[in-house]
Design brief:
homodimer; 201 residues; Tetracycline Repressor, domain 2; 2 domains; DNA-binding
Chain lengths: 201, 201
DNA sequence: TGAAAATGATTGATCAATCAATCTTTAACA
DNA sequence: TGTTAAAGATTGATTGATCAATCATTTTCA
């Protein structure tokens, strides 16, 4: 007796709700202080139901980290690493990234936990690290373009610039822990640009 | 029957050992996965002894965060915010900070946890935040000096610069999680300088 | 000898995971 | 259309493990 489409949709919605609340709770209270019971209560589901959607707590955590990454990665990679005007493209990239980081504070707090305790969360860390490698290199490509065109100084290695920039984004996110307001975040876009040593300003 | 000096020294050493191991374990495995039993084993002390030196686990964590901060804060504030040559002073400050951050990775991982979960670790966060305010403003003072002297562009607000710089330091620390090697860290000093928009380069 | 530190077994609380019982949905058939 | 039975989702009480904290006993030291 297979499930109807309606039923499947209903269950998917339930799963999503559990995962959403898990992300919030894990990010605010950490792995151990987020009990299955709290996740169940927060998502309006019985204790036992959590286990019909996720094999165990570790698996729930894993999906919390990995599934949201899948949503975010195309947004983070949404820039052209071989554009006509690298400087303009960098500016537009920074603008997008800053907006994005300002809005995904909860998830990035979770990411911070995984990075900070990568021994403990080895499996999740590997997933994040793999994406980060792609991200880093794509930015470095764009920086290299900028340097070739003479719009950026050549003194700094593109990969170093790229690591500096991504570190800066994460650092700002940590720093402005509870300020999603765009006004504050927008102030940091010109500062981020400085990291790439522009020749013109 | 008062304790002898020798005895007091011995006990202080024991307390230090417990605290040192607690910092390592808390930073690598987080609060809940660091059991008192593990701390006791790691520091070569009986389970019960931990409680003669620290009232409870929460207190042990608090001291792990706060006491190390007391050691580090004078080192972080060891620069002149009203020097003859602000540019040179900034360079020297950055150099010191980079060296320091490269060497206190374990403790900074702990700091990251407290910041990332400031609701959960409210008391510890307040202590860190109070120091950070001082730190931030002292850097901003130096930047303001640099702007007045014309060595730095005026386009960016000194406090914004200061937040950007401290965010950058923490971000790099997160990023290079397990690389205390100075070579890699040293590459980031010139990038950090860029955050202050120097007029000469 | 007595005062204080050290020890680890015990206790009570908490939590992940299981599982038997119940409820809901679906499809076959009259 | 109404009835029924099977499939599968939902539930929360129970279980077993883990851990912080206590405390009675032992050890150390002046």
């Amino acid at each position: 007796m297979a499930l109807s489409d309606k039923q499947i949709r209903k269950m998917k919605a339930k799963r999503d709700k559990i995962l959403d609340q898990a992300i919030i709770l894990f990010s605010e209270h950490g792995y151990n202080d987020t009990t299955i019971s709290k996740v169940a209560k927060a998502s309006g589901v019985s204790f036992g139901s959590v286990f019909t959607y996720f094999e165990n707590k570790e698996e729930l955590f894993h999906h919390a980290v990995v599934e949201r990454l899948k949503d975010l990665s195309p947004l983070l990679l949404d820039f052209n690493s071989n554009p006509e005007d690298p400087y303009k493209e960098l500016e537009s990239m920074i603008d997008k990234h800053i907006r994005l980081f300002a809005n995904v504070g909860t998830y990035l707090r979770l990411v911070t936990q995984v990075i900070g305790q990568h021994q403990r969360f080895e499996r999740q860390f590997k997933e994040l690290d793999q994406f980060y490698r792609t991200f880093r290199y794509k930015i470095a490509d764009l920086v290299a373009q900028g340097q070739s065109s003479g719009q950026l100084h050549r003194e700094i290695d593109p990969i170093t610039s790229s690591i500096a920039y991504t570190s800066f984004l994460m650092g700002i996110r940590l720093n402005l822990a509870d300020q999603p307001e765009h006004d504050i975040w927008a102030d940091f876009a010109p500062v981020a640009m400085q990291l790439f040593s522009p020749n013109i300003s």
